[in-house]
Amino acid sequence: MARLVIVSNRVTSPKERAAKAGGLAVALREALGKRGGLWFGWSGETEVGASAEPKVFRSGRITYGLLTLDPEDQRAHYAGYANGTLWPLCHYRLGLVSFRRADWEGYRRVNEHFARALLPMLKPDDIIWVHDYHLIPLASELRKLGFEGRIGYFHHIPWPTPAVYLSLPSHAALVQDLSQYDLVGLQTESDVRALLTYISSEVRGWLAPGGFVTLGPRRFRVAAYPIGIDAEAFVEDARAAVGSEEMKRLHASLAGRALAVGVDRLDYSKGLPNKFAAFGELLKSWPEHRSTVTMMQIAPVSRGEVAEYRSLRRELEELAGSINGEYAEFDWVPLRYLNRPFQRATLAAIYRTARIGLVTPLRDGMNLVAKEYVAAQDPKDPGVLVLSRFAGAVDEMSGALIINPYDVEGMAEALHTALLMPLEERRERWRANMDKVESNTIHHWCEHFISELATANETAPDPLPPQYQASRA
Ligand SMILES: O=P(O)(O)OC[C@H]1O[C@H](O[C@H]2O[C@H](CO)[C@@H](O)[C@H](O)[C@H]2O)[C@H](O)[C@@H](O)[C@@H]1O
Ligand SMILES: O=c1ccn([C@@H]2O[C@H](COP(=O)(O)OP(=O)(O)O)[C@@H](O)[C@H]2O)c(=O)[nH]1
């Protein structure tokens, strides 16, 4: 079996004991843990004039290669172009996009640095799988250095429609970079449609059925691979949590009240202010729920070096304070707001206790929390998933109560419905969701992508003649 080489900006090293608040690191650790291979990425450290020598070590079946970056390059790459330009763009927040040429140049320098450090570690028959928007130009850089093997790319966040994507001054250059991969994976079919429409209408790429693209001299494929979770492990963690000290403390603190839970990085894409407002609206419009339901929002701080994330934190502190100030009783605090990350076992206990899992992003690539909440439920008495129509997970979670996160009153109504939902309906909805969580696991996702990467070019049909391009996209 060919060796799997995973490249991502964020790597969870085995020494890290703290919970990782981010789906990519969680998912890749689970994917690689089973198969083994090389995981290459940023060490999390910076040093002026950092060398191109990665720190290499082995733990279990995984070899790690961790690269230190120059501080200014790291800033331009991560806080600058990746999270100041591409993240808001791909989440449809044009008002938050900043585009600075220095950031774009730093982004490219870091990708070049990654390629130079990675190349000596590669064997020709390795399967290289690059993850996420921090590393789109990596294949171009590896090809420039002469690497000809298979390289795949997975984009964990949404791909915006051409109307939005065209606001990026570097739009054509990035798609040229994508064309250097053999397989480009996106989370949903609508992301695929958005990218293929851009390719056929803006850069005159030729499309063939199955997502095959010819762009200049390159042939590659674009397809949807919705990411999953390690369902078995989550079910196990949730079962093991029953009767644990943590679960007992949680139950005791709720004193028989229903729990609604949210777990999100503190990120403006997650729709947190609207979620808080919806909970406030529930307490205002349905006073019978006062003192009978508690909401817990776990929101570990994320990307504190980007200004918008700091202002969101202040906004949420104010909102939480005003809801609690208005509705709290001497023996009931309506909203518990926690800014630190929790380990998976603790999350599993909290999910299982919660009558409602509340997932309200304004846009989200997938949202693994939605799937984890489903996996952690007690099949005999499951809770209700309330899910944004703008999360990638909505395509699979047909049993959720689907909400529009811009509609605060509509979300409050869904919370009211969820709190009153009869057991039989809860079971039916949960079963529909759980079937998907169990059939599309992280292992299935991994194997599916890798097997299609291995054969990406062999199965390519002839491209369609140009007159059919637009209708195919
Ligand atoms: O690395 P950070 O800057 O701390 O951010 C954490 C990760 O956030 C994003 O996760 C995405 O991937 C998930 C798994 O596919 C998906 O469910 C979610 O919808 C996405 O937002 C980001 O894409 C990762 O690169 C970050 O590591
Ligand atoms: O305190 C926390 C909060 C979140 N997570 C994990 O972080 C991931 C978040 O992934 P998701 O796809 O929902 O969103 P992202 O943060 O990647 O945008 C999930 O696996 C969570 O279980 C965690 O381990 N501890």
TrEMBL record:
CDD domains: GT20_TPS. Belongs to the glycosyltransferase 20 family. The lineage of its organism: Bacteria, Pseudomonadati, Pseudomonadota, Alphaproteobacteria, Hyphomicrobiales. Coiled coil: none annotated. Probably involved in the osmoprotection via the biosynthesis of trehalose. Catalyzes the transfer of glucose from UDP-alpha-D-glucose (UDP-Glc) to D-glucose 6-phosphate (Glc-6-P) to form trehalose-6-phosphate. Acts with retention of the anomeric configuration of the UDP-sugar donor. It catalyses: D-glucose 6-phosphate + UDP-alpha-D-glucose = alpha,alpha-trehalose 6-phosphate + UDP + H(+). GO terms for biological process: trehalose biosynthetic process. This is Trehalose-6-phosphate synthase.
